[in-house]
Structures are given as C-alpha cells and as structure tokens.
Design goal:
Length: 93
C-alpha cells in the first residue's frame, strides 16, 4: 500500500526506478518520534485503520520493524501459523 523510506535519497531512487508502477512513497526518518502521538484509540484515523485491516482490538499480536532478513520474519510467520492461537498476526514493516 505504501513504501516507507528512511532516507530521502532512497525514496527518490524508488520513485525514479519504479516510476512505471507509480509507487506510493513517503519518507520517515529512521528512529523514533520525539513526541508522543496525539492519536487516540477513538480517533477516526485509528478506527478506520482497524476496520480497513479487519483487526479486532486486543485480539492480535503486533510486530513492527524494518523488512530485513536479520529480523527473522519468516520464522515469526511460520511459528505463528503453527500455533493454535485465535488471535491475528499484524506485521507492520
């Protein structure tokens, strides 16, 4: 849905090299926000995201990270699939 680049030059590269696909990109500096988010669970933006992704509050496992091999997403996904949990697996990269 969205390609997030942690470097403005990488974002430029993606937009240039893959222009034919009209990539939807944004630049977000690598690291953490210095201010607490003002969004709350009641905000329309948050509610819409839960609805769009078919996520039920307090009924999911959340993994957030860079999509790189050393983060072992394959292992996480395989082990989740092998589990008997009724919760969803939400992966944000």
């Amino acid at each position: 849905d969205l390609i997030i680049a942690d470097n403005p030059e990488i974002e430029k590269y993606i937009n240039k090299e893959y222009a034919v696909f009209h990539p939807n990109t944004t630049y977000i500096a690598y690291g953490t926000d210095l201010q607490k988010s003002k969004l709350t669970i009641k905000d329309k933006k948050v509610r819409d995201w839960f609805t769009q992704k078919k996520i039920i509050e307090n009924n999911y496992f959340l993994v957030v990270g860079r999509f790189v091999p050393e983060n072992n997403y394959e292992t996480m996904i395989r082990e989740f699939m092998a589990s008997r949990t009724k919760k969803n697996f939400v992966l944000v990269t």
